[in-house]
Amino acid sequence: MKQFRITATCFDGSGASIPVTWYGNAVSSSDAKLQMTHEAQRNGWSVGAIICVQQRKISKSIEVVA
User: Fold this and answer.
1) Model pTM above 0.90
2) How far is CA 27 from CA 18, 41, 51, 61, 62, in A?
3) Bridge partners for 7 per DSSP
4) Do 36 and 6 touch, CB atoms closer than 8 A?
5) How far apart are CA 29 and CA 15, in angstroms?
6) Residue 41 is inside which H or E element, if any?
7) CA angle at 52 for the pair 36 and 19, rounded to the nearest 5°
8) If we measure between CA atoms, which residue out of 19, 24, 23 comes closest to residue 47?
9) Could you give the CA distance from residue 64 to residue 57 in angstroms, rounded to a whole number?
10) Tens-place pLDDT, residues 28-56
């Protein structure tokens, strides 16, 4: 799993432009884009353009007991 941040331009029902930054976990960048698109559609928006996709690998924390 990786953490993603996607910057996009969406449009609301009246056609107004909305700058959107989506944060979430996904297996790949295409999966992250799909999740972001579905969330935008659930909000009643359409995706105009995906501007940037950034990813970061989730690091597992290790507890050291001394």
Assistant:
1) no
2) 26, 21, 20, 19, 22
3) 21, 52
4) yes
5) 27
6) helix 29-42
7) 65
8) 19
9) 22
10) 999 999 999 999 999 999 999 999 999 98
